[in-house]
Amino acid sequence: MNHSFLIETLRSIVAASVPLIYAGIGETLTERAGVVNLSLDGSILLAAMTGFAVAYLTGWLWLALLAAMVVGALVAGLVAYANIELRQNQVAIGLTLTLLCADLSSFLGKPFMHQPGPGVAPRPLPVLSAIPGVGPILFDQNALAYGSYLLLIGAWIWVSRTQAGLNLRAVGERPEAAFARGIDVNRLRYLYTLIGGALVGLAGASYSLSVKLGWSHRHTAGVGWIALAIVIFGGWHPLRVAFGAYLFGALRALGGILQPIFPTVPTQIFQAAPFALMVMVLLLVGIDAGRIEIYFPRWLRPLYRGLLGGSPPAALGQRFDKP
């Protein structure tokens, strides 16, 4: 494997992981507030179709991204409204919206199937893209990739280092205590659900306008479920969620690399392998760290706890009713 091939492979992994970072961090913020939005897969499909359709009809990429974010926010808002105001189960509403949005994307997207359209072009950053090694990988990307870097750093600082982030964690962990401190629990849940949904919508547009240009039936099918799995893998921590997105991107790239080396192996094996490996990782996450880390060398135990540690917010999925 020559140096240029390795650089190009790593660059493609970063580019392909961008939608998962947007969706994963968006869902992390939503679940940190105590709301489970299981509509991701359908929401990403509908947002991807909307983003491409708007870009195709107008040629304005910024309007396409905005439209996709509005779609994602509206779908997420329905989940929050149904739970908070109508007292419906978040999981049931999310799954129903997944199916509805997927069918809507197929029905409304028929005129745009397999049509050529605009995409977000790569724009290397001056000076930074010339840094040996990391420059071409991280800074020879497009604006969506650069935005994902800012998002993951900003989300980490917001959640872990600010008073607003402390309030967010309180709402997801102990909403009764947060309410007693004067925090409007349901208002914050609405806010972070809408923000998370908008980021999920941006993930859909990132896919159809950057990763896999265009629109086709079930264009992004499965991306939402992987994003949900990555949130669990990342322990509801923005930086670990981003690591999970890049890891999944690397696993998919590895399948593409290995296919020519083992031509007799069915292509379906390499296509399914990343999903199977992600399931195995989730099983490791679900096992108590203290029970399994004894099988690791001592120097690896802190890394294991850092990457796979974490537990869901205590009030995740639970409706809060004001006393």
What's the quick description here?
With 323 residues, this protein is an all-alpha fold. The chain has helices at residues 3-32, 40-58, 61-84, 90-108, 134-138, 143-161, 163-173, 175-180, 185-211, 223-233, 238-261, 267-286, 289-292, 301-308. The protein has a domain at 3-221.
Description of the molecule:
The protein has 14 helices and no strands. It has helices at 3-32, 40-58, 61-84, 90-108, 134-138, 143-161, 163-173, 175-180, 185-211, 223-233, 238-261, 267-286, 289-292, 301-308. It has a domain at 3-221. The chain is mainly alpha-helical and 323 residues long. Helix 1 (3-32) crosses helix 6 (143-161), helix 2 (40-58) runs antiparallel to helix 3 and helix 11 (238-261) packs antiparallel against helix 12 (267-286). The mean pLDDT is 88.
